[in-house]
Amino acid sequence: MQEGVIVKALSGFYYVEDGQTIRMCRARGVFKKKGIIPLVGDKVTYTPIGTREGVIEEILARRVELVRPPIANVDQVLLVFSVKEPELNLWLLDRILVHTERARLPGVILFTKSDLLENGDECQLWVSAYEKLGYPVLMVSSRTGEGIEDVRSLVNGKISVVAGQSGVGKSSLLNQLSPELRLKSAEVSHKHGRGRHTTRHVELLRLASRTYVADSPGFSQLEFGDMEPEELAACFREIFELGQQCLYRGCLHETEEGCAVRPAAQEGRMAPWRYQNYLEFLSELKDMKERRF
Ligand SMILES: Nc1nc2c(ncn2[C@@H]2O[C@H](COP(=O)(O)OP(=O)(O)OP(=O)(O)O)[C@@H](O)[C@H]2O)c(=O)[nH]1
Ligand SMILES: [Mg+2]
Ligand SMILES: [Zn+2]
Q: Where is each EngC GTPase domain found (predicted)?
């Protein structure tokens, strides 16, 4: 038996990579009987059949399991956001961070298309705001090559999932990291200021030995699912910290008396857009909860 990683799942077949080749495998019938569904990212053992096929015998223990996109053993999420074209979307950035925090996955922020920045653009403000929260932040450009080597060391030896809007340059960045990938990239439509979601299914791309990246479209339409309003503050690092000083336990940091978060936002001790986004997500969660009952 040999060991490999599932890099793609399509119509009942699992594509297993062992470092050299990719084999098209079926899963043993017992998986179905037990209700186990192999996931992209799973480490498996398999019995080879000929040179290109095989049968998956066993799924090795999963460390992490993401639902959207469905990937196992993810080490980190790369939040890819362009500084321009399309315009930086901090609402979506904070929204994705809520999900990475909730899944307890490290988030790394990559600001792309840095070559489009002009003198006087306020990018440093965003960089320092997120660095202050403890997130690694890199400025990158697939045009000039800025930051590409830093991204390479950040992804080395890991399974990373890429998250970000269409057209921010995810595929272009991955092509820079590994030109053999030859991923399609597409002109951003100027009319809408966004791309066309050139990338569709979930697939792990091999960048180097033991290094995989999923260029996934699924991460951008993020629903909060069954999340409770009370859980949100823990997904904003600074709000969680500041919230320790609130007068009441269970303070939702809206208009409560003795809240420590609201004044901090008003006095500029936390990024104002982060507090705005928190309030917006909170009201969405409350609405959803009401509709559940
Ligand atoms: N100026 C500049 N343009 C870039 C850069 N990276 C990508 N682009 C352009 O941005 C457009 C979109 O790039 P893609 O790599 O296709 O973006 P994507 O995030 O993969 O888009 P989807 O697959 O639709 O989600 C293309 O026209 C690229 O040429 C960059 O670093 N600088
Ligand atoms: Mg793409
Ligand atoms: Zn509070």
A: 72-220
